[in-house]
Specification:
single chain; mainly alpha
């Protein structure tokens, strides 16, 4: 499965890592400015202000673009959970309309499927749960196909449509959660522009003896917080922001009541 480079890193490591990286970039610019006589002779402090403003504007645009991608993907994952729960619930009800020879097995397989989908959310080895989901797809398809061949009618036709949609939604959830991520090229570009921005600010600070960290540190902390938020939204299984599974949990409880 395609995963983000940030998936295996604790979220607070990402935050402090970005803060340290930006401080290093600022210090590099400051030291270059303080130690290089050529820069002070060729560059006027006033000319750096438009450059810094342009870099900050470009950085803000890229961060807004990246944030919009992350939030859209997060919303999409939430929507697919609801759609999948609704479709499984529909299939579970429609199972009552097919021959009793197949109804019991189909309902049992659907209960197992919901259990598997919920386990996959917090599983340390999600691939095993996804393989189990595919196995259940095949078993469900075999049962409803047999029911349709044995007694073709509108009820079995609707059941086949429901199972087919469950299979489609499984693929959509896997694609949205594990494959559709913010591209590595965007992360590299974002960090590169951030590094250049802080380096340029450091160069400007070097024209005066004080570093001016009191003004720079809040900017670094804010930037690190927003970048960490984007990284967290881009991680479907770990982090502070997780897609709620309440619709699937409610469905699981209703199914369990039906067994009793």
């Amino acid at each position: 499965m395609t995963t983000s480079i940030f998936d295996s890193i604790p979220i607070y490591y990402i935050y402090f890592g970005i803060c340290i990286l930006m401080l290093i970039a600022f210090e590099i610019g400051y030291q270059i400015s303080r130690r290089s006589k050529g820069i002070k002779e060729e560059v006027e402090p006033a000319t750096l202000a438009p450059v810094i403003g342009g870099l900050i504007g470009l950085l803000g645009f890229l961060m807004a673009f990246t944030f919009s991608i992350a939030t859209e993907q997060f919303s999409q994952r939430k929507q697919y959970v609801l759609e999948e729960a609704n479709e499984i619930g529909t299939s579970y009800l429609r199972a009552d309309l097919i021959d009793s020879k197949y109804k019991t097995e189909v309902k049992q397989l659907l209960r197992q499927y919901v259990d598997t989908r919920l386990r996959a959310v917090n599983s340390t080895n999600i691939n095993n749960e996804l393989l189990k989901s595919v196995e259940l797809h095949n078993l469900l398809w075999s049962e409803v196909s047999a029911a349709a061949l044995a007694k073709p009618n509108t009820n079995t036709s609707m059941m086949i449509q429901s199972i087919n949609k469950i299979i489609d939604l499984h693929e959509k959830r896997v694609t949205a959660g594990l494959r559709n991520r913010i591209p590595l090229s965007i992360w590299i570009t974002l960090l590169a522009i951030s590094f250049m921005t802080m380096t340029t600010i450091g160069i400007k600070a070097g024209f005066t003896k004080p570093r001016g960290l009191i003004a720079v540190i809040p900017m670094i902390l804010a930037f690190a917080a927003l970048t960490t938020l984007i990284a967290d939204l881009n991680r479907p299984q770990k982090g502070l922001f997780k897609v709620g599974q309440q619709s699937m949990i409610s469905l699981q409880k209703n199914m369990q009541k039906d067994v009793k």
